[in-house]
Design goal:
Elements: H1 11-14, E1 64-70, H2 74-85, E2 93-96, H3 140-145, E3 149-151, E4 156-160, E5 165-168, E6 173-181, E7 185-187, E8 201-202, H4 207-217, E9 222-226, H5 230-241, E10 245-249, H6 262-274, E11 278-280, E12 285-290, E13 296-301, E14 306-308, E15 311-314, E16 318-320, E17 337-338, E18 350-352, E19 357-361, E20 366-368, H7 373-388, E21 400-405, E22 415-421, E23 426-430, E24 437-443, E25 446-453, H8 457-469, H9 475-480, H10 484-496
Parallel strand pairs: 1-2, 1-6, 2-3, 6-18, 8-15, 9-10, 9-15, 10-11, 17-19
Antiparallel strand pairs: 4-5, 5-6, 7-16, 12-13, 13-14, 19-20, 21-22, 22-25, 23-24, 24-25
Helix pairs in contact: 2-7, 8-10
The structure holds flavin-adenine dinucleotide.
Amino acid sequence: MSSSSSVRRGIMSSISNAIPLKNGLSLWCPRSTSVNQISGPSSIVSTSSRRRFTVSASSFANENREFVIVGGGNAAGYAARTFVEHGLADGRLCIVSKEAYAPYERPALTKGYLFPLDKKPARLPGFHTCVGSGGERQTPDWYKEKGIEMLYEDPMEGIDIEKQTVRTNSGKLLKYGSLIIATGCTASRFPDKIGGNLPGVHYIRDVADANSLISSLEKAKKVVVVGGGYIGMEVAAAAVGWKLDTTIIFPEDHLMTRLFTPSLAQKYEQLYQDYGVRFVKGASIKNLEAGSDGRVAGVKLENGSTIEADTVVVGIGAKPAIGPFERVGLSSAVGGIQVDGQFRTSVPGIFAIGDVAAFPLKIYNRIARVEHVDHARRSAHHCVKSLVTAHTATYDYLPYFYSRVFEYEGSQRKVWWQFFGDNVGETVEVGNFDPKVATFWIDSGKLKGVFLESGSPEEFQLLPKLARSQPSIDKAKLEKASSVEEALEIAKASLQG
Ligand SMILES: Cc1cc2nc3c(=O)[nH]c(=O)nc-3n(C[C@H](O)[C@H](O)[C@H](O)COP(=O)(O)OP(=O)(O)OC[C@H]3O[C@@H](n4cnc5c(N)ncnc54)[C@H](O)[C@@H]3O)c2cc1C
């Protein structure tokens, strides 16, 4: 069921910076600023960005640490692995973490973690980094064995750039040689005054959030998911698995507007509707209403209607967790902490990686912030390699995005898709979603981006090659393709052209 698109965009549009924007991959790759327009940190950074300290062997007995990573998430886990690979972790690396868990693969939280309880949901230690890339699973013991100091549940609260010290919540003072900021993002929230913190209202960023959501799902009957991006789509799919009455509300006119074409979105929306999910599109939320028990009982829209709910999950975007790093040099173009192609900030010895970093996206000549696990992994590896070796190559990232839903045992239709490149220009869609569909973005005769649902491993491997090469492609020929396989063959042949 769709609501009228004439509903005014009130509160939801007022937080439009947090919500996926209309054109392009705005949240992860804002294309507002060309790399050339920015006087990059590389021009400010001194030639030697690594500083050394005498540390007291592996005991971490004094306050000196050669390397400190602030943030214990996806990027931190991969950075730790790279330090280990270079033999520079033991007794030298300290990770300051807000969470109670060793770094894990965060995307699992809205996928396997939310499987119905009788369908073998994912749980730690099953998905610690670096299982997502086929690497060794880095459990808490792994960090101990590698001589890495982990400060759990002790977030960094202050930094003194001159003295090169960070202070943690428990009062610990650490003097760093090199500091890597890997604080990721925090979920955007509805304000308290409109019911954003009522019991039964959930945001999902970490394991604690996911556990809290599961305890609501166990009792839930009616779930409202606010937001039509990947978090909304994944949580709604999970709620279907739990056999709950589910409604998705969003201000746009279709799902995933930052990536999907209307036609592509229509196919996914139909699938969700076949599963019984209702859609309320073009909607703006006035407030979340409480019942007599103080728990959320409904979502009131600006048009005066109310949708009943005992559980509300809000997936309206995320903000870079800049916290105490304002003085390090922030990007006015895309938010986050500005770095150069080796993840150096404007302050010698301080680096930023993962979701929080605003970096030069070389392939498209613009500054971007990418909220994607693949970038978290690659930026961590690139940064640490540049820091500890003479490696000076510029990071050259190809935007990539994926999702997988309805994957629990017994599901009638599993969905998994990948996108590589830039979603600019005209589109050609091939396939009927049974199960495959592909969309090609073509700009000035060049293939810029490719989306594929339910591809084979070989087909998925072709996508980055296409998006990276940006070959000239015959659009008319592509339009005539009678199957996804044929369209991909045409695209593959264009690589030779
Ligand atoms: C529910 C969910 C599903 C996702 N699904 C996908 C997906 O399907 N595909 C995909 O590509 N990406 C997905 N992502 C995005 C992906 O998880 C992120 O891009 C990735 O985790 C970024 O890694 P990071 O290390 O930069 O940040 P994070 O993994 O968020 O880690 C940051 C860590 O820093 C900690 N921190 C913050 N401030 C401080 C402080 N002051 N002191 C100490 N610690 C601090 C945080 O608590 C957190 O543990 C998803 C994200 C979420 C939340």
